[in-house]
């Protein structure tokens, strides 16, 4: 009877180990596939960092433009092809600084809605420049911000996708190792821990 119970526990352990191994391989495989997809998509866009995308150069450019109170990138992608999530995130940081220099340090919400002849812009429709159709012209600086934000979000999405893929690889590897360890214990004949039987109650009045 004891041998039968031991055999049953061993079979159960092997089944659990097999499930863990299969799940680990699948998770790691999906993670690797996702990381490869991010890499291929970035390479396909042929994005290359400009010469100004280094910490020292961008700091000088920001001072020249009078940009203050803005966190500057500490990474560098100058002259580098963007092929990883980390590079994409770095490129997006430089794009934001470039956009702020183009808009005088103002974000989309801080810029006037309409364009004016003096270039300062206005929120008052009656003071705005009129376009060929006779309608007030939108502030072109806002278009710069919208374009930069859209591209930055796409690059940051690549970074997040790569991080999720790496997490999937790590989780898959952990499940794989646990499954292999469990299978090794089961095959080696090591008894798996089990709940200890409850201690029998002593009859009342028994001598201690």
- Counting copies of identical and different chains, the oligomeric state is single chain
- SS-based class: mainly alpha
The total strand number stands at 0
> Which percent range describes the beta-strand content?
under 5%
* Rounded Rg: 31 Å
Straight-line N-to-C gap: 33 Å
Dominant shape: elongated
Order of H and E elements:
HHHH
Overall pLDDT, averaged? 86
Counting DSSP H or I runs of 4 or more residues, the number of helices is 4
- Report the sheet with the most strands, covering strand number, pairing sense and barrel closure: none
- What percentage of residues falls in helices of 4 or more residues? 55-70%
Low-confidence stretches: none
Give a short overview:
By secondary structure, the chain is mainly alpha-helical.
Structural key phrases:
mainly alpha, 4 helices, 208 residues, elongated
Give a verbal description of the structure.
By secondary structure, the protein is mainly α. It has a domain at 39-173. The protein has helices at 2-45, 55-64, 85-102, 140-188. The longest helix is centred in the last third of the chain and has 49 residues, at 140-188. It starts with a helix and ends in a 20-residue tail after the last helix.
């Amino acid at each position: 009877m004891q041998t039968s119970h031991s055999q049953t526990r061993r079979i159960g352990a092997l089944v659990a180990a097999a499930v863990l191994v299969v799940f680990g391989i699948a998770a790691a495989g999906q993670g690797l596939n996702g990381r490869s997809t991010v890499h291929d998509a970035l390479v396909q866009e042929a994005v290359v960092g400009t010469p100004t995308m280094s910490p020292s150069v961008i700091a000088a450019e920001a001072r020249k433009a009078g940009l203050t109170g803005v966190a500057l990138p500490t990474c560098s992608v100058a002259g580098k092809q963007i092929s990883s999530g980390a590079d994409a995130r770095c490129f997006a940081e430089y794009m934001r600084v470039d956009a702020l220099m183009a808009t005088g340090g103002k974000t989309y919400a801080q810029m006037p809605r309409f364009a004016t002849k003096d270039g300062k812009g206005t929120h008052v429709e009656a003071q705005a420049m009129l376009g060929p159709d006779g309608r007030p012209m939108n502030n072109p600086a806002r278009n710069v911000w919208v374009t930069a934000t859209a591209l930055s979000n796409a690059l940051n999405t690549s970074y997040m996708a790569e991080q999720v893929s790496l997490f999937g690889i790590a989780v898959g590897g952990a499940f794989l190792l646990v499954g292999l360890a469990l299978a090794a214990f089961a095959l080696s004949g090591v008894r798996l821990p089990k709940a200890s039987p409850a201690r029998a109650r002593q009859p009342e009045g028994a001598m201690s």
